[in-house]
Amino acid sequence: MAQLHDLLSTGNRSLKMYAKRLQKLDLYTFRDLLYHIPSRYEDFSLVSEIGKAQEGEIVTIKGQILEAKNEYTRSRKAIQKMIIADQTGSIALTWFNQPYIIKSVALNDSISVSGKVERFKNNLTMISPDYELASNNLIHTGRIIPIYPETAGVSSKWLRRQIALLLEEHQNMTDPLPETIKNEYGLLDLSFSLKEIHFPSSFDSVEKARHRLAFDEVFYMQLAGIERKKLWHSNKTARKLTISEKDLKAFVISLPFTLTDSQKQAVNDLTSDLSKEKPMNRLLQGDVGSGKTVIAAIGAYITAKNGLQSAIMAPTEILAKQHFATLDILLKPFEIKVGIVTSSEKMKKEDSYDVLVGTHALVSKSVVFKKLGFVVIDEQQRFGVSQRFILREKGVNPHVFTMTATPIPRTMMLTLYRELDASYLTHMPKGRKTIKTWLVSEEKRQNAYSWIEKQIQTTKSQVFIICPFIEISETMQTVKSAVKEFETLQEIFPKMKMGLLHGKLKAKEKDEALKNFRDKKYQILVATPVVEVGIDIPNATIIVIEGSERFGLAQLHQLRGRVGRGEKQSYCLLFSDAKNQKALSRLRAMENMQNGAELAEFDLTLRGPGDIFGTKQSGVRILKIASFSDFDLLQKAKNAAQSIEKTLDDFPELSKEVKSFVITPSSPD
Ligand code: ADP
Ligand code: MG
Questions:
Q1: Which CATH superfamily hosts domain 436-593?
Q2: Which residues pair with 120 in a beta bridge?
Q3: Cβ contact 96:109 at 8 Å
Q4: 206-432+629-669: CATH class
Q5: Residue 472 CA, distance from chain mean position
């Protein structure tokens, strides 16, 4: 489908104008347009003679235009009136504020209209029906009509016309899917499926077409994953890193805690990968607070013992600084030099570190490694493909270790990240208690405040208070802002010392606020969600989240994960002025579910898979047609991919298609 190029570079001027608007729908190429799948259909397939049309029926009728005119109301609004007739009778049609309709037709034209038949003063009529000039190729009336996801200035009607044209131009596309696979899995032909998904001959046919296109989606992803894995390993030699039992033990014993069993398993996976000649590509998945950082520290320790450098990249400056502090404490006793680079903390040329922690500033040209052997990417979902790639390229085939708290279901792992080996932290460190979570009503706000005050006094706990915004917004006066709340709370807790942390502060001010909180100089930290990922202050045991309905479940879970990081009982208080049941039941789920994976699954049923990641997964095409919960489809695609993997080169079209799914470093983030 090479000719299905960029929409912006089309010669068609009107289409070019639309190209910008289409970007809002994530449509950039003609191919995207062809794969813009209807969200639903309208059934206009019942065709009736005018004389037989019944009041209340949704029908299509064809007739000749006897009359067509604009009438104007006293307020100068135009009403479009038409009368059309066939051999059996006539019917009046009315539209509002669309004078161009009258201009686009001529008397005696034959038109086809679809809509609901109504009765007005004993005459049959249709109000605002869909219409088009009659032809053998109806696309807006007289059949099952696709309704698309739309955006400002792009209607389903417009999309229908463009897609119909495209389908006509591409009636006989080569189908990259081998016949054997189509036969074995009972799949329709590609051109036919695309035609049927947009302009179906029956609803049954829609399902078959959707099945074929969904199969494609996961099948290509699976094959692309297999290809990426081959690519990763092809001709790449990494440095084999070894560590003596004794040295490893020395480090593990120096830790302020004993490793959990799943941490030990992850360390085994890690050391085994590091000792191979092939570069490691491993993902460590573990819920918020499960203790991923120390695994990265062990990797960095082994790397340093082998005389090589490590780079550890975190998504925010706050988190980078925290990692720097943690790693420095753990590694310094072993004479391992840890450094940091962020946008506000530049590295000097002459500086050289064994372990360099940083934000995406690590990727910048000025940061050079002499012998980078180990790359860690924390909260990997926050980084784009190219950032990860560039960091890796700063060494010669370094081992790569990524970490995430995002619970990615196994089926999704196999499809999206087939090239990754995975380790899971399935258990929390010993002694952790479940975080008591309450949805607190506004009437109980004062009680909640007195309870918090008492907790601070009796158990010396520290408290996060999270507000959705930094400053009061004009349009949303009722939503708490950190700056204002910081003032209000001074009066509510006159005896408490309080800090303020939000994204608009200078790096220095942020550091100070967080440092004072960490050093227990503040009992309360009022903050925006800048604290969301990674912040680790085990003495903080209460988190209050204002306007909690504004956050997704994954984000609430991340926020809540700021507490419960030690052995003390922790609490999460959710405030919300949401009235709607759906929002409330989402928040109630927080009361009952502690586990990120469980919450993600619940969110999946509420909102669909895109949101598991909070934001769209950078650089990875998330499924548009298939669903990760369709295990049967995923399994079939997996079998099919495995059956053809070795002979892929015998199918040039398929091979080409798969390559477009293999992410290359030049692909946009
Ligand atoms: P995350 O997986 O969210 O990145 P961290 O690595 O920040 O979690 O660890 C959370 C907290 O748990 C830290 O304070 C860390 O020191 C502590 N921790 C990690 N492993 C253990 C363990 N095995 N036993 C007790 N505490 C641990
Ligand atoms: Mg972390």
A1: P-loop containing nucleotide triphosphate hydrolases (3.40.50.300)
A2: 123
A3: no
A4: alpha beta
A5: 28
536 lines ligand 1 (CB under 6 A): yes
The CATH classification number of 46-142 equals 2.40.50.140
Residue nearest to atom 3 of ligand 1 (CA): 289
pLDDT in tens, 80-138: 999 999 999 999 999 999 999 999 999 999 999 999 999 988 888 999 999 999 998 99
**Exposed, middle or buried by CB within 10 Å (0-12, 13-18, 19+), for 284?**
buried
The rounded distance, in Å, linking the Cα atoms of 470 and 102 is 52
CA 467 to mean position of chain CA atoms: 23
How far, in Å, from the CA of 556 to the mean position of ligand 1? Answer: 19
Q: Identify residue 488 by its one-letter amino acid code.
A: T
Q: How many CA atoms lie within 13 A of 241 on its CB side?
A: 29
**CA–CA distance, 347 with 340 (Å, rounded to integer):** 8
Q: Is the whole model's pTM more than 0.90, yes or no?
A: no
| 8 A C-beta contact, residue 327 and residue 356 | no
Give the neighbor-by-neighbor strand order of the sheet with 462-466.
436-440, 571-575, 540-545, 462-466, 524-527, 498-501
Asked whether 267 lines ligand 1 (CB < 6 A), one says no
| Model pLDDT for residues 254-290, shown as the tens digit of each residue | 999 999 999 999 999 999 999 999 999 999 999 888 9
